[in-house]
């Protein structure tokens, strides 16, 4: 009974958060999202950032590699996992360095899952993924008050197909600068 109540509350909170979507205007380095070729219809692939951490000589002492990593706003996960692999950890590390150098910026970490599994399970998995990214960022010096995490579970797929390549794109955390 308590588990059903907990899952019901989790679902209600997830639906409420989905309805409270914030303005997607951004701040930070102007970069192109090179994470994947698949985008949602409203995604232009670029987000304006203030340029302080991108490129050579930025506030991070950045390099082209830093700018390339900051351009990636999605980190992907293996099936049924919230662990970051080495490639995706580099993306999170770059954003953490940038956020630590710019403590006035705020970020929402949106956790997503593929369509397999129950709705409740996928909401919880998306939350674990967002929390995993946030935990790494906090360890690297990002103020916890700068981070908000939320989960959409399977509700906002990047790729609507029902195959492994689509599912791989949908298992992600999106780093959204506010």
Give a written overview of the molecule.
With 178 residues, this protein is α+β, with helices and mostly antiparallel strands. The protein has one domain (26-34, 46-177): 60s Ribosomal Protein L30, Chain: A, CATH 3.30.1330. 39% of the residues lie in helices and 15% in strands. The chain has helices spanning 2-19, 64-71, 86-101, 119-139, 164-170, and strands spanning 31-32, 46-47, 74-76, 107-112, 147-153, 172-177. The strands form two sheets. The protein has a four-stranded mixed beta sheet with strand order 3-6-4-5. A two-stranded antiparallel ribbon has the order 1-2. Strand 4 (107-112), helix 4 (119-139) and strand 5 form a beta-alpha-beta unit. It is globular, with a radius of gyration of 16 Å. The model is unreliable at 10-61 (pLDDT under 50).
In short:
The protein is α+β, with helices and mostly antiparallel strands.
Count of DSSP H/I helices: 5
Total strands: 6
Structural class: alpha+beta
- Tell me the name of the CATH homologous superfamily: OmpA-like domain
Could you name the CATH topology?
A: 60s Ribosomal Protein L30, Chain: A
- What pattern of helices and strands is seen along the backbone? HEEHEHEHEHE
Helix content: 25-40%
Q: What are the segments in which pLDDT stays under 50 over at least 5 consecutive residues?
A: 10-61
Residue fraction in strands = 5-15%
General form: globular
Total domain count = 1
Strand order of the largest sheet: 3-6-4-5
CATH architecture: 2-Layer Sandwich
Any idea what the radius of gyration is? 16 Å
CATH top-level class = Alpha Beta
Biggest beta sheet attributes = 4 strands, mixed
Quote the distance from N terminus to C terminus: 39 Å
What's the rounded overall pLDDT mean?
77
